[in-house]
Amino acid sequence: MPALPQIVFGGASLGHEFPTEESVQEVLTLLKDLKITKIDTAARYPPTNHGMSEKLLGITHAASQGFAISTKIFTTGGDGSGELDRASIQKSFSTSLERLGVDQVDILYIHRPDPTTPLKVQAAAFDELFEGKFKRLGLSNFKPELLQKYLDVCDENDFVKPTVYQGDYNVIIRGKNFHQKTPRPLKDHEKFRRQAIVAATDLIL
């Protein structure tokens, strides 16, 4: 019998709608009451105050309270060019770990594609960080054809493979953009068939 979906709390509101240590702790307490133990944040969150979401999760010691925290490599408001070279990945992730006050995260995501840095360079940098720094590698906002190319590079070079895909799924973005397009490379790839898809939504369905 397939496992039931798990709810993951999105941390983009931390540092914006919940700007203080006290307000974030109230959120964490409510999440624990609801048995929600996974938090998804990013170096970019909140968009108006980059890094504050991670910082507040660190200040409140969310990981020590039993939350599994995932984060994403920093991205600007541009097209992502140059954001996934080795130096940028290392700087972003080391800063995230420092803010969060942890040595390891659950899932480390590529927040969005980098169209100029070669995929092999990107994949090699994540492979270098894999040992002890994150449990799983995830991709977010990748179109199916680019997702397949990334998987192929990992297979060809024996790099750590992404085993989690995060994409939009809500009342508006449903069949056309999620079920019919994105999952196809996941279903075809053995590693993804055994792993996870994270559906990101701002709406309660």
UniProtKB/TrEMBL annotation:
<dbReference type="InterPro" id="IPR023210">
    <property type="entry name" value="NADP_OxRdtase_dom"/>
</dbReference>
<feature type="domain" description="NADP-dependent oxidoreductase">
    <location>
        <begin position="7"/>
        <end position="176"/>
    </location>
</feature>
<protein>
    <submittedName>
        <fullName>Oxidoreductase</fullName>
    </submittedName>
</protein>
<dbReference type="Pfam" id="PF00248">
    <property type="entry name" value="Aldo_ket_red"/>
</dbReference>
<dbReference type="GO" id="GO:0016491">
    <property type="term" value="F:oxidoreductase activity"/>
</dbReference>
<dbReference type="InterPro" id="IPR036812">
    <property type="entry name" value="NAD(P)_OxRdtase_dom_sf"/>
</dbReference>
<dbReference type="InterPro" id="IPR050523">
    <property type="entry name" value="AKR_Detox_Biosynth"/>
</dbReference>
<keyword id="KW-0560">Oxidoreductase</keyword>
